[in-house]
Each structure stands twice: as structure tokens, then as C-alpha cells.
Design goal:
By secondary structure, this protein is of the alpha/beta class. The protein is built from 19 helices and ten strands. The protein has five domains: 119 residues, Tetrapyrrole methylase, N-terminal domain (Cobalt-precorrin-4 Transmethylase, domain 1); 105 residues, Methyltransferase, Cobalt-precorrin-4 Transmethylase, Domain 2; 75 residues, MazG-like (Helix Hairpins, Orthogonal Bundle), CATH 1.10.287; 68 residues, Helix Hairpins (Orthogonal Bundle), CATH 1.10.287; 46 residues. Its EC number is 3.6.1.9.
Amino acid sequence: MTTITIVGLGAAELDQLPLGIYKFLKARPELYVRTDDHPVLAELADEGVTYTSFDDVYEKHDDFQQVYREIADTLLRLADDKESIVYAVPGHPLVAEQTVQHLIEAEREGRVTLTIKGGQSFLDPLFAAVRVDPIEGFQLLDGTALHRDDVHMNQHIFIGQVYDAFSASEVKLTLMEKYPDDYPVTIVTAAGSSAEHVRTVPLYELDRDMELSNLTTVYVPPVNERADRYKEWQTFREIVAILRSPEGCPWDREQTHESLRRYAIEEVYELVEAIRLEDDEAIIEELGDVLLQVFLHAQIGEDEGYFSMEDVLASISAKMVRRHPHVFEDVTVNSSGEVLTNWQAIKESEKPKVDSLLDGQLRHDSSLLTSFNYQKKAATVGFDWPDVAGAWDKFNEEVAEWKEAIAKGTPDEQLDELGDVLFTLVNLARFLKLSPELAMQQANQKFERRFRYVEASVKKGQGTFTAYSLDELDAFWQEAKQKERGEIE
């Protein structure tokens, strides 16, 4: 079996290299190294050790992943030809060394046998340089592939591969999505060596006028104050859990799924209104209020032992992947219309068998939406007018019957006929692709806006409604309409 021996060169100079590793390297007639930019190699070269580096591969690619893949593939070919080779990497082979991870993949596939000889990783001298005990919790992240959501602000963060101003700038911008611009970060170069250099700067200076190299690591200390971690999901979850705890808020502790139901509806309506107004600040605030409802319900589920936020996330994540086979699988679509068709088909396949098309369409908090859903479902099997003309005829018929009930019928008959009128109105809205719920919201908002103007006009005038005739009050109403249209100041 083809064999590759992987040797760690340690984090600093030759003096920190274990004696056994030193003797092993000295005895190698042929040695491959990922990069010759390491102090141990310079000293070994002075002692007559020769080696071949892969530094030229870095010049061929813009993407580090391609570099690491090519190096690993080349090593596998060389090992096939020579049956056994030695490959040396900075630090420890199993700490932040992607080429070794590719070789491990090949080993699992049965293509090669690996022998790994350690070397001191850069982590030990790094912990010493910044005086950190790793048991407190830390993250080691790759600066060339850093994402905002990778960063946990309550932990010690070490970011490697920050080797030049460009990579430092990318790291800085990513961190600024969470941390204040002036948050202190520490730049550690050549940790553990005689050339070790440690400097703390505000985050915004990370990419300015300082020496960076492939031996540079950026350290970001944990954020201890909760108020400074408000941009993290976990912080919000912690706040909601505290509110529901015995030491928290009596009102929040008393809430149930049922008691919170009306608040969920109200918050969604307020979000819809902020969207209608195209008010970004209001949208942020209202999205937060909706999110609070989600987290509260999830916390109630966890407190009662039935489900947790993880169950909610798993459910929606699985659903999104399942209903987007054109994104996550090999299904091909040519338009958004095809996407919606597939979505509906997948959705229907997920539902349990029902006795009626109308099962599951009832909305207890909105009779308008219930009517809309019933009619939409009935239409899927052809129980519908062929066009909007039939819907208009039915509306006029129901209005006539309502008028007759008002003239001759009982209160129950009048109420029944009014329901029919409203039902046909919803049907017209469906034909015209209008939301009856939104229409009702807008009508309520419009009435509130104009009536408040009437109230203000009365207060500015004679002070009471009884001092005005209906025509005079209607004149104020018309002024409100004109103001909305910009016809008067």
C-alpha cells in the first residue's frame, strides 16, 4: 500500500522541534513541504537537508481550496510512483492543515496509508502569547473562509490565515458585522518563536500599516457584556429564557401558546403595515416583535418538555430543502411558475389523507381568510364560476336577497343574508387576485386616519361633536381625503 508520512514542523524555530522529529528529517534523502516559508526549514537547509516545496502551486490559483486540493492530489500521485514519501507541514499536521485533511479523505477511501508524526501546533504558544486558558472555550477559524455566523462572541476567537492586508480587510469587515468598530483585537505573529510579536489594536485598524504573514493569527477576546452581544441569536434566546424563568417576569411566565395567539396575529399585521409604508426602521422593529413571538412559543415548548427551538429549526430547514429540489437536488425548472407547481405538488404529498378538501382550511382568527381558503380549495376541483362575471351576478343576487331580508325578514335571516353578501365579496376578491384581509386592514386604517383628522378639526374648532351638523363633519372628512391626495396643505 502506498504510504505518506506527514511530519509537523512545529510553530517556531528548530530548538522547539522534538529530537526524534529532527533526526527523522535529517535522515530523509527526499522531502516534500507545503511551503518553505518556515524557520525550521531555513535552519535544516543550513544543515544540508534538501526539500521540494509547493510554493509554485500558490501562484497558479486564486482560491486556497484549489491550492490545497492540487497539493494533495500531487502528493498522492508521487506516492503511487515512489510507494513512500515524506511530507512536512507547518505546526501540527492535524491543526488547521487542509492538505492533510484531503489526504485523510484519500486514506478513508483506501487509496493511501498515512503515518502522522506530530509537531507542536501554533495553538500552545498562541494561548501563551495572549494569556488564554482554552478550557474557557475557544474557536479556531480560517480567515480565508470566515463567515459572520461562524463567530460566537462569548468565546475566545483565533483566526488564522490572515497573511496580508487583503485577507485582514476581509476579516475586519466580517467581524464588524457583529463587533463594535473599536473592539480590541490582538495580532500575534510567529507565536512561540524568537520573532514573536504581539500587538493589540482597535478592530478598524486591523488591515492598516502592520506586518502580516502566514505566521499571523488574529485573536478576538470574548464579549462579556450581554448588551454588546445583542446581534447574536443565542443572546436573544438567553433573554427569552430568563424572562420565562422563576427569576424572570411574572407576565412572561404566565403565558401559554393560547394566550399569546392574538399577539402573534397583531405583530404580523403591524409588520405588514410597516412593509406597506416601506419604512425600513419600522420593518426592523416589527420583524423583531414577530421574532419574539417565535422565540416565546419555542421557549414555552421547551419549558413544557414538548419541543425546543432546535425542533422548530429542524422542521423548517427540512421543509425548505424538501420543497426546493431544483436547488438542493437535480430537478430542473425553467420558470417561477414551475417552482410554484412543484411546491404545491410536494406540499400536497406531505399532507395526511383528509375526508374533505376543506379540512385544515379553517382560520379561527379570520373569517375572511376562512372564506377565501374554502373558495380557493373548492375551485381546485372545478366548483367555481368560469369567470368573474358569474361572481358579479352572484354578488348582485345576494345583495337583493339581503335587502329583502332587511325589509321583511327576521334578525337571524338578515344576519344570514349579510353573511352571503360578504362571502360573495370575498369570492370577487379572489377572482381579482386581491387579499380581502389586507383590504379590510387598509379600510380600517383609512377610517382611523380620517376620523382622527375629523376629531382634531373638532377640537381646534368648537370643541364638541354636538356643535357640528353631519354635513359640517363630512366636510372635515372630505378635507382629510384631499390632504391624503395632496390637493390641499
